[in-house]
Write a structure and sequence with these properties.
- By secondary structure, the chain is α/β, with parallel strands linked by helices.
- It has a single domain, classed as 3-Layer(aba) Sandwich (Rossmann fold), CATH 3.40.50.1820.
- It has eleven helices and nine strands.
- The structure holds alpha-D-glucopyranuronic acid.
Length: 426
């Protein structure tokens, strides 16, 4: 009997394994399914949105609620106590180019607390409040620049042999290792500040049924994990950006009406959701955000909803998993996420070799979001994507497709800075 059960188990797991292996990403345009996108400008009761006011008072609210319920998950109700402490302040950092601060932000609720460190560089010696780019980093604040003044994170970090990180604790060897992705000096020289947080401070990026990070602060009595429509990790990271924004709003050196939220890859999905759910961000940048970010889900080109929910079960709310195999029934698609930024400038960046993120699907989201922007200002995007390395910056939906692969480079930042110069009245 035991033998039969064992053989049956073996067969089931072999089959599952074969099914797993059988999945291959589609990279063939001719195999993209026919799809119909959900209506952007028709409300649930069938009325057509004709003005910006209609959009803001009716359809925008509906769409935001749909994304909360079916994709990212809503932040549970209830307030927290937040306190901010400047841990370090150096007025002449980076050879006098920058004023650097690190602020510990603590959030308390239900006798639990999380803390995260906001690292901020502002151009030194400026009197007027400055615009700031704010976004998460993947490996700890200390990795974004060789600056020895940056504190090492105490939080859990991914192990990396090449940096000799083997016990999930940050070390000196990793200092500055991601500097290539963060052209801090250029950002400062162009008159912008940079604020960044290690995303693992808010919620470590591995699936533990939401026992660590911010989620447990919001559990009701006896609750062990978020409800099906409550937040996954992306919504938690977006929430963290809003808490950092709460702090920036209190700081007179920063212009709170010009805070740009930026992110690469999973953190680009996060910057989009942060920009959608918190309209205090005055510009939004998505870099190679792909599935669950700027790319249209219904195209199923490269990474799919089923794939992302299988590989990263903690990123989205559990309701999203119900659509793994019926993406065409999702009440939203990602062009609606881009539309939620309107009329604020939004920039979508793709990379030519990053097919997993579906560059064309990222561009199409911009095109299909344009009708909402048009309620405010004429916003026209060509139906075909631009050539590689020919950025579109004039309209409020900016876009480029860079040569090369999945990454955020100096070239990308140059375009984001130009776009901010153009649209944030700098
Ligand atoms: C994986 C994942 C993507 C994500 C990327 C990243 O490739 O499938 O959805 O954008 O990781 O964050 O680096």
């Amino acid at each position: 009997m035991t033998r039969i059960i064992l053989i049956a188990c073996f067969m089931v797991s072999t089959l599952a394994c074969m099914q797993e292996k059988a999945w291959e990403a589609n990279y063939d345009e001719s195999k993209v399914p026919q799809y119909v996108l959900p209506e952007l400008l028709v409300s649930a009761d069938g009325s057509v949105m004709e003005t910006a006011d209609d959009w803001e008072s009716i359809r925008r609210t509906e769409i935001l609620a749909l994304f909360e319920q079916y994709v990212y998950g809503r932040v549970p109700y209830g307030s927290c106590t937040q306190s901010n402490e400047v841990l370090k302040h150096e007025q002449h950092a980076l050879d006098g180019l920058a004023d650097r601060r690190e602020i510990k932000i603590s959030v308390d609720r239900n006798d639990r607390e999380i803390q995260f460190n906001l690292l901020v560089y502002l151009p030194a010696g400026t009197d007027a409040p400055v615009p700031v780019f704010m976004g998460y980093n993947f490996d700890g604040n200390h990795t974004i620049h060789p600056d020895t003044g940056i504190l090492l994170t105490d939080s859990w970090v991914k192990n990396k042999d090449e940096w000799s990180v083997t016990n999930n604790q940050a070390n000196e060897e990793s200092r500055g290792m991601k500097a290539r992705r963060w052209p801090v000096n250029m950002i400062l020289e162009r008159g912008y500040g940079l604020a960044t947080i290690y995303y693992g401070d808010i919620d470590p990026d591995y699936h533990d049924d939401f026992q660590n990070g911010v989620h447990p602060l919001f559990y009701g009595p006896g609750q062990k994990m978020p409800e099906k429509d409550e937040w996954g990790s992306i919504a938690a990271w977006a929430w963290g950006l809003s808490r950092a924004m709460d702090y920036l709003e209190t700081w007179e050196a920063v212009d709170p009406s010009r805070v740009i939220v930026i992110g690469h890859s999973r953190l680009g999905k996060t910057s989009l959701w942060a920009g959608a759910s918190d309209q205090r961000f005055s510009m939004v940048v998505s870099n190679n955000s792909g599935c669950g970010g700027a790319a249209l889900s219904r195209r199923e080109f490269g990474e799919t909803v089923e794939r992302i929910n299988t590989s990263f079960p903690h990123w989205f709310c559990r309701n999203f998993h119900d659509y793994n195999r019926r993406v065409d029934e999702l009440p939203v698609d990602q062009h609606m996420l881009i539309a939620l930024m309107a009329p604020r400038p939004v920039y979508i960046a793709s990379a030519a070799e990053d097919l997993w993120a579906d560059p064309k699907g990222e561009y199409l989201s911009g095109i299909h979001a344009a009708p909402v922007y048009n309620l405010y200002h004429p916003t026209v995007l060509d139906t075909v994507p631009p050539e590689i390395n020919v950025p579109l910056k004039k309209s409020l939906i900016g876009y480029h497709i860079r040569s090369g692969g999945h990454d955020i480079t100096r070239y990308d930042w140059e375009q984001f800075l130009d776009f901010a110069d153009l649209h944030l009245n700098k």
